[in-house]
Write a structure and sequence with these properties.
This protein is an alpha+beta fold and about 290 residues long. It is built from ten helices and ten strands. The relative contact order is 0.15.
Amino acid sequence: MENQWVVNRQKPTDTKFPLLENMWIERGTKEDWEKLHEFHYKSEGGAMGARYYKVTMGNTLVGVCVMCYPRGLLKDRHKLFPNIKPGGEDTKLTNTYRYKWLNANVGLNARTVNDPLFRGIGVGYRMLNLAARMDGRKWYEIQSSMSKFNEFAHRAGFQFVPPTPGKLHDVATDFYGTWFKSNPVDQVALIQEFDGMSVAMQNKVLDVMRKFYWKHSSLEKTGNNRNKGTSRVDAMGIKDLVKNINQLAFSSPLYGVYRNPDHGLILPERLPLIAFDEQGLDKPLTRGVSKCV
């Protein structure tokens, strides 16, 4: 198991930014998320069973962390937890209890966002760690392409496995090569090339791109989209199609897990953000914690 983990970073020991002393974390609302969602690189889209946590400084909203139910099937999870991987002998009953166990024991960090005025001072990883502790489940997952560039989740205590290349990579590369000369991963160049096409050619390219995306996207056939048929995809323009196809084919999000050391304990409903600094990442909080009765 150990050789599957990416090297993990330790909790930073740098000097705390003074304003952190005045920040607090507590349960938030969807309205809090909506105030900051435009600053997240995945600004749209919902989360099943969303639970919101906010960081404030006085009356100022500093950041929001969104926890939700985990995905039912996840290949990277099955590398680490092979006992919950579906097998050929599964029944409807075992599948039902697998999902119940996941929902009761595992949470997913769907979004973490800070106001741009408060970035780079250590809010994000402190907020993520404390939100996971306060949310109360035993395990927390994160899947994020940005984790390859911004190590806030590493600093929050999440451990990561190496990404698995997408199966659609070569198929999408060949598809783009049929209709475009630009590098498939250069979304700006693809859109500029599209803008230079004739109207007739644009209509043809949009048609084949919509069919390609619909064929390969499970997102468009599940959840709230499952009853919409192709109507949502048919309404997509070139920017949405390029973004969605490239995310399917070329993104390789890191999968990380954090074991909540406060699982089974009762935490205060409101904590100072610097409570993160008062114990190790794998140790229970020292502030205002009591055992469940």
